[in-house]
Write a structure and sequence with these properties.
117 residues, alpha/beta, Transcription Regulator spoIIAA, 4 helices
Length: 117
């Protein structure tokens, strides 16, 4: 797995590419905690290859933890259908999913709205 960071305005996009390897999840967690703390972040998973549900759940958990502990909620973009099913089955709504990076970028521009019951 390879993660490339690039900047679009005030948003950091993390383009994740290749095969997810369980051995690299701790390095990925550390990079999120150190390099991305306090930033607006989009995880683009367009080029991530499916490897089975065991490794992907750990990887998704890192993104959810980052989002929960960060000032700005993280966004995920371009998640393949196989990943979407796994994500939705284990997510509690801590991370927004977008079809494209541009849609995720736009969502950072929209004011957050509270839903009142």
């Amino acid at each position: 797995m390879e993660a490339k960071f690039y900047q679009t305005g005030e948003v950091t996009i993390v383009a994740i590419k290749g095969r997810l390897e369980i051995e690299k999840t701790q390095a990925f967690r550390h990079a999120c905690q150190v390099s991305l703390k306090g930033k607006k972040v989009i995880f683009c998973m367009k080029e991530l290859n499916f490897v089975g549900s065991t490794g992907i759940h750990s990887f998704f958990q890192i993104i959810r933890e980052f989002s929960t502990n960060n000032v700005h909620r993280a966004k995920v973009a371009e998640l393949k259908p196989d990943f979407q099913r796994l994500w939705r089955s284990s997510d509690s709504g801590t991370v927004e999913i977008h079809e494209s990076v541009s849609a995720a970028l736009q969502s950072f521009q929209m004011p957050s709205m509270e839903i009142k019951e």
